[in-house]
Amino acid sequence: MTDRSHFHEEHVDGFGTVRIRPLDPASDADVVHGWVSEERAVFWGMRGLTRDQVAGIYAHMAGLDTHHAHLVTKDGVPAALFQTYEPAADRVGECYDVRPGDLGVHVLLAPAGPGGPRPGWTSALLTVLTTYALRTLDRRRLVVDPDVRNTGAIARFERQGFVRGPAVVLPEADLPDVYLPEKRAQLAFLERQVAFPG
After folding, report:
1. Banded model confidence at residue 1, pLDDT cuts 50, 70, 90
2. pTM of the predicted structure, to 2 decimals
3. How far is the C-alpha of 179 from the C-alpha of 112, rounded, in Å?
């Protein structure tokens, strides 16, 4: 069973109800296109693409067994794009020793909006996402690969219990639908027994 068959819902006291569901390439295209078109999302490789091109990429991904896209909502409002993937089928797998039970994750949070920074917001979302990936999907370890210059993201992952691995250079990938530039990434790992001891 692949993770596209899963739907996760969790209520977080003082935060709200978080839902993780498979991304719908057609109905979610407007939201996702807006997010991946921003400068902060340059390493998602979709800046400059049209809404229909972005929808096409996610329609293609929906047919893969190795890569999955999810839309995360908080109280019904889109909050994040969450992608999971098999590291051995991704360029990150060329940069470290992949173990059985590893799962790669990419997270793109919704912009803060007119209210500005949201204290505790990122931590609450990441807690739900890691619970889903490690428990619902029954994985042993998560790997993330933020840009080495994104010190804020690296610090956020470390606060969630991720441990830094090596800094690596992910090779460029010129895929049929998207071009991913070479990326200097800081790998970090979260073991299930660290996230959920005992």
Report:
1. very low
2. 0.91
3. 27
